[in-house]
Amino acid sequence: MPRKAVCPTFLSTGSCPDTTCRLKHDIILCKLCGIVCTNARVYEIHLRGKKHRRRASGHSTVYHCPICGINATGPTVWQSHQQGKQHQGNAKRLGISADVEPEEEVTPPGFVWCSICNANTPDHLWAAHPNSPRHKAKLKYAKYEAVIEEAMKDKHGIVVSGRDDGIDFGIVEPAVAQIGDSATITVSNTVPSSKVHLVEAKFSSGTRRPSAFSLEDLRMPQVVSYGKEVSCPITFRQNNVGRFYDRIEFTFEDTLLKSRFVIIRTVKATVGSSADYELLRPVAPYVPRKRVARNPETELVPGVPPDTLRSIKYVVPLPDAEIPKWLSSLLSQGARSSVTSRIRQSALPASLTSETHGRHFSNLLWVEEYQMDRDMEMYDMHDATLEKYNSFYYLVVPGLAEKRPSVLVGDRIAVQPNNIEGGKWYEGFVHVERRNEVGLRFGGSFSYSSSQRFRVRFRLNRIPLRRQHQALDVAFHPERLLFPEHKHIQANVPANSAVLTMYNHLIASNPAQVRAVTQILGQPAGSPPFVVFGPPGTGKTVTIVEAILQVLKQNPRKRILAIAPSNSAADLIASRLASELSPEQMFRFYAPSRFKNQTPDGLLDYTAVTAEGRFTAPPVSTLKRYCVIVSTCVSSSFAYNVGIPRGHFTHVFVDEAGQATEPEVMVAIRTMADNATNVVLSGDPKQLGPIIRSPIARDLGMEESFIERLMKREWYNASDPQNDLVVKLVKNFRSHPSILKFPNERFYNGELQPCGDTSVINSFLNSPLLPNKKFPIVVHAITGKDDREASSPSFFNIDEVTLIKSYVESLRADRRFRITEHEIGIIAPYNAQCHKIRKALSGVADEIKVGSVEEFQGQERRVIIISTVRSSREFVNYDLKHTLGFVANPRRFNVAVTRAKALLIVIGDPSVLCLDPLWRSFLNYVHTNGGWKGNPPTWDTSLPVNDSGDYAQEVRELHVSDMNEFARRMEFLTLEGVEEDGEEPDANVDRPWRELE
Question: Name one GO cellular component term (predicted).
Answer without folding.
Answer: cytoplasmic ribonucleoprotein granule
